Amino acid sequence: MSDADLILRFRAGQHQAFNILVWRWQGRLYHFALRYSGDSEDARDLCQQSFIRAYGQLHRLRDPERFSTWLYQIAANLCRDHLRQRVQHVSLDAYEEVSARPHPALCRAADMDKVELRDLLNRALQTLPEEQRVVVVLKEYEGLKFREIAEVLDAPINTVKSRLYYGLKALRKTFNQWDIDEDGL
Amino acid sequence: MDCNVRKEDLLTFFYGECEEGEQERMKEHVAACATCRRELDALASTQALLRAWPDESPRLDLTFVEAEVPRRRFRLMAGLAAAAVAALAFFLAWPEFELSYRAGELDLKWGEALADEPLTREEVLATQEGTIALMNQLLRASETRQQRVFDYLLTEIQAQRYQDLQLISRQFEQFDREIYIHLRRDEAPVMEVLPAVRYIDP
Questions:
Q1: Cα separation of B120 and B116, whole Å?
Q2: What are B139-188's pLDDT values in tens digits?
Q3: For a Cys staple, A36 with which of A79, A88, B125, B162, CB 3.0–4.6 Å?
Q4: What is the pLDDT of residues A46-89, one digit of tens each?
Q5: Is the pTM of this model over 0.90?
Q6: Within a 13 Å sphere around the CA of B24, how many CA atoms are in the beta-carbon half?
Q7: Which of helix, strand or coil describes residue B107?
């Protein structure tokens, strides 16, 4: 059963159809929020808030075929607002922790275990400006087309491509500075 | 970049999203352009590192619970049903009529003797038609309700099945982890003893 079918069933009064949508999309949305926000607890909250907002606004979605981009749009807006609030409270120590260089012994990807590599990549992503990070996450991890990302972020396609280009370039520079390579992946 | 290719176009090519014809043209250009090849290699290398962060298995289990249905709706349905039963009882007590049920609809016919009753024939016929319409409306409402209940149960079953599968999957993961821990624990003493074992020829 497609997402659009489930939305129609939900609108017809079948409440459980929304839960099927939630179970279908909660993993994707959680990972999106995790890589965007950089924190697993925040990601859980943001994921939950996204579905609550989607539940309240699903009747306003004109084209049910656009559900996935609409859902990412809700999550992206919530993540952005959350990050902007968090920036006001972030301490200098936390900034230094994010931008700190990792220990040289951990720098070959093949020598790191999954948790170390995940933390390192998370820290690298968090060094990007928020508008570049969201594009990198939507493209590299969520696999959206440029047209879909432009729709989610309500931005011109060329702006999306430009942000992605500079985001990937900045990541490459960070990986080089941290002496991280993909040998053995 | 030294060549004239825009970074946006190179990215579009890298992700295979060029329009028809453009992908081939870019491919030919890249084959001849060392700058673009270097750029693409760097993109591929960055991408490989990023993708080394796999998805996890978060324990979210979000479930939305349906809000309580207002009682008013049930009271309205009960009122309609009571009115229909009263109307039916009234017509069943009347001597000159024939009630039949065909192809999912009720049909009511009146005899000629009613022409001399205090009510006019037109009034009775109008009341009769109203009753039949009401009964048919109730039958259709009942069918629609049954269909909705059926659809609802179907989605409930699907949802439950999904939850069960998730639970089974989690239990298997837990089981795997425990087996792994036991194996590692049992392996250690065996590995200590093994080097000391000598084959003795009987």
A1: 8
A2: 888 888 888 888 888 888 888 888 888 888 888 888 888 888 888 777 77
A3: A79
A4: 999 999 999 989 988 888 899 999 999 999 999 999 988 876 65
A5: no
A6: 2
A7: strand
Count of CB pairs separated by less than 8 Å, A with B: 115
Residue type (1 letter), B39: E
ipTM value: 0.81
Please tell me if residue B194 touches chain A, with a CB cutoff of 8 Å. Answer: no
Query: Kind and range of the H or E element at A136?
Result: helix A130-136
**Are B196 and A56 within 8 A, CB to CB?**
no
- Using one digit for the tens of pLDDT, what is the confidence trace for A114-157? 777 888 889 999 999 999 999 999 999 999 999 999 999 999 99
CB contact under 8 A, A117 and B52: yes
Contact status of A158 with chain B (Cβ, < 8 Å) = yes
Mutation target among B39, B53, B57 for the A interface, most CBs of A within 10 A: B53
Check CB contact of A163 with chain B, cutoff 8 Å.
no
Contacts of B194 (CB under 8 A, 6+ apart): none
For residue A64, what is the DSSP state? G
Binary contact (A31, B56; C-beta < 8 A): yes
Give CA–CA dist A125/A47, Å, rounded.
Answer: 19
Residue B135 structure tokens = 């009964």
Helices (H), A90-129: 92-99, 114-126
Q: A162: which chain B residues are within 8 Å (Cβ-Cβ)?
A: 7-8
| B29 token code pair | 């250009």
Name which of A20, A28, A19, A27 is nearest A2 in CA terms: A20
Rg over CA atoms, chain B: 39
pLDDT at res. A31: 93
| Residue B47 clears pLDDT 50, i.e. is over it | yes
Give the whole-angstrom CA distance, residue B98 versus residue B112: 12
How far is the alpha carbon of A155 from chain B, nearest alpha carbon, in Å? 15
Give the C-alpha separation, B114 to B111, whole Å.
7
Please tell me whether residue B101 adopts helix, strand or coil conformation. Answer: strand
Alpha helices in chain B (DSSP H): 7-14, 22-32, 34-50, 71-93, 121-193
Q: Which of B60, B20, B26 is nearest to B40 (CA)?
A: B26
